[in-house]
Amino acid sequence: MNTLARLGPTGTVRREQLSDEVAARLRAEIMTGALRPDTFIRLDETAARLGVSITPVREALRTLRGEGMVELEPHRGHRVVPLTRADVEDIFWLQSTIAAELAATATERITDHDIDELVRLNDRFAAAVELRDPDEIARAELAFHWTFNQASGRVKLAWFLLHTARHLPPQVFATDQGWGAGAVAGHAKLIDALRRRDATRSPLSR
Prior knowledge:
By secondary structure, the protein is mainly alpha-helical.
């Protein structure tokens, strides 16, 4: 059986990708407060704002409903569920726990080429922070951590961290200059620990 037959019609694949993109956009808006708690997300208004049809918005909201970020109220639509302090603490705890485990493994497995790539990506991130470009900051931050996580060789664990990170996207911090400068320094400290092959020096160590 060929790949297209297994994956289904091209339009279906594209629609799934589009619904994922819409879900990511709405998730980031919820986490950054652009969509306030108890706000109702209207299908037609959201589709028009994002320049898509209603179908991917409906599918995206179904995804977010499964994540507990919105809930469907009969005859009213999807309402943004308020985040509690415990929710945020749980997200940070899970991210830091997985990241520490990946860091311990990456310290043993990472190559000099990988480290050089992290230096390049941190330079890119620092430039974005200097320019105060939140979109590029978010992209550069994701690229840095994705490269680092992949260097651990623990693909499944890196995948879990990526999906956990969706609930705390870089856009949450991207406009905070203090966070940006601290993140650049933290990346540099991590790179130094990796060069020394010393997990205890990593800012991600527990």
